[in-house]
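Hypothesis: this fold can be encoded by more than one sequence.
Test: take the structure tokens below, design a sequence, compare later.
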């Protein structure tokens, strides 16, 4: 159903009201990283936009993939790298199924070293945001600015319950229509056309005609919870300028979380996006791109 993974970019642009002068320069790239187990290695895949050194690195949320940033990338019109986190998209699955922020950060740092060593901004949404915090804390040489989208280390099972309910659903679906219907049910702010593109990028059809998600389901977001809270200390140690973007329709980031973030990082900038749920990049991509562009350009 999807012969060319970039064939739908014109639809992204049209739906967002962005100008279209032809296919952008974007390609799929991959790099090998060590898994830390007896010399094991895995391939981490990414989308490289533009023909010069990436100015941004984008990390998606759990159960998503790099294509979640397509409209944001078109709106930014800057060279950037959108990474498929381990176990997601076109990246290899880990044998130990460990996709915690700490483990993800080790792989992301290697990819950034090789493909985006001079990026001015690291952006992470949800699980990608927690991963980005860890990268910024441990590798400040790679992170000049940090933006986290609708997440803080204060996320817990209760706040993330709607997301967990969605990604913990059936393992396979009898048809594309069935997997799309479930996706629409759990993403009310989004258009059906947007969600259709998202499913085509995030699922695959099997020989028997059924559909399955591309991400590794063997470690659920709920099981990752114990790895989140210590990241408050990591966040406090980050010296790079910090931006938090909240989706106004999302309950993942509470007012108490914002207070804790400001206590630890009084200089942090906090922005809310109206009409956006947890996946701000999907619900209001042009507005998110504007905020990121402003943050990049800030003195």
């Amino acid at each position: 159903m999807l012969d060319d993974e970039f064939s739908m970019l014109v639809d992204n642009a049209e739906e967002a009201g962005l100008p279209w002068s032809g296919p952008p320069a974007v390609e799929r790239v991959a790099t090998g990283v060590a898994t830390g187990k007896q010399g094991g290695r895995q391939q981490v895949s990414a989308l490289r936009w533009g023909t010069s050194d990436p100015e941004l690195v984008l990390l998606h949320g759990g159960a998503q993939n790099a294509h979640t940033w397509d409209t944001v990338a078109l709106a930014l019109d800057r060279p950037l790298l959108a990474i498929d986190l381990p176990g997601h998209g076109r990246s290899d699955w880990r044998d130990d199924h460990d996709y915690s922020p700490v483990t993800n950060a080790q792989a992301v740092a290697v990819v950034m070293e090789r493909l985006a060593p001079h990026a001015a901004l690291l952006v992470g949404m949800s699980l990608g945001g927690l991963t980005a915090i860890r990268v910024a804390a441990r590798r400040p040489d790679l992170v000049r600015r940090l933006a986290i989208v609708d997440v803080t280390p204060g996320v817990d099972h209760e706040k993330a319950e709607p997301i967990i309910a969605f990604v913990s659903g059936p393992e396979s679906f009898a048809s594309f229509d069935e997997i799309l219907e479930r996706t629409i049910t759990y993403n009310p702010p989004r258009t059906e056309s947007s969600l259709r593109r998202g499913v085509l990028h995030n699922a695959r059809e099997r020989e028997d005609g059924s559909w399955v998600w591309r991400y590794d389901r063997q470690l659920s977001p709920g099981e990752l919870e114990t790895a989140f809270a210590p990241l408050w200390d990591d966040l406090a140690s980050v010296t790079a300028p910090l931006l938090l973007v909240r989706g106004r329709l999302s309950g993942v980031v509470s007012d108490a979380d914002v207070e804790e973030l400001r206590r630890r990082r009084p200089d942090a900038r906090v922005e809310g996006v109206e009409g956006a749920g947890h996946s701000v990049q999907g619900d209001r991509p042009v507005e998110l791109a504007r905020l990121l562009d402003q943050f990049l350009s800030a003195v």
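The chain has a mean pLDDT of 94. The domain at 9-14+26-297 is CATH 3.40.50.1820 (Rossmann fold).
Hypothesis status: open.
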